[in-house]
Specification:
This protein is mostly beta strands and about 130 residues long. The chain contains no helices and 11 strands. Strands 1-2-3-4 form a 4-stranded antiparallel beta sheet, with no helix packed on it. A 4-stranded antiparallel beta sheet has the order 8-7-10-11, with no helix packed on it. The protein has a 3-stranded antiparallel beta sheet with strand order 5-6-9, with no helix packed on it.
Length: about 130
């Protein structure tokens, strides 16, 4: 085992260890367990990735990464700061997550996607074209 990355759960009882050379992930909970394939490394930080497609017509995919298990709130705001959709409001596991945003009933224009995860807040813009 040649670790290239390690992440701890919030309660510090579980360690996620990445062996980059063997392209394997392991979990330590008092004993070693293989993580089911495919190999997906634990993200190094919490971040909101680019929406695709953007601009979009009726729906777009929002992608974000979470380094550790934490409460995540992903919502869409209009340019007045009013919430028009709450897409996620729950505790999420480490990894990359993809959420579909369906803009039914919304007017064409620019909207702000806002991610709150732990103490991190990130935002990006999406454009709805009808």
């Amino acid at each position: 085992l040649m670790p290239t990355d390690v992440a701890l759960s919030n309660d510090e009882l579980t360690a996620y260890v990445i062996d980059g050379e063997a392209r394997r992930a392991f979990v330590y909970r008092g004993e070693w367990d293989d993580v089911p394939q495919p190999y997906t490394p634990v993200p190094r930080q919490i971040r909101l990735l680019t929406a695709y497609p953007n601009p979009f017509n009726s729906q777009t995919w929002l992608v974000f990464e979470v380094r550790e298990q934490t409460r995540v709130r992903l919502r869409v705001l209009n340019l007045f700061g009013q919430s028009v959709a709450v897409l996620v409001d729950q505790v999420m596991t480490p990894g990359q997550h993809r959420v579909r945003f369906e803009a039914r009933g919304l007017a064409s224009g620019t909207y702000v996607v806002q991610l709150h995860a732990g103490t991190v807040e990130e935002s990006s813009k999406v454009v709805l074209l009808r």
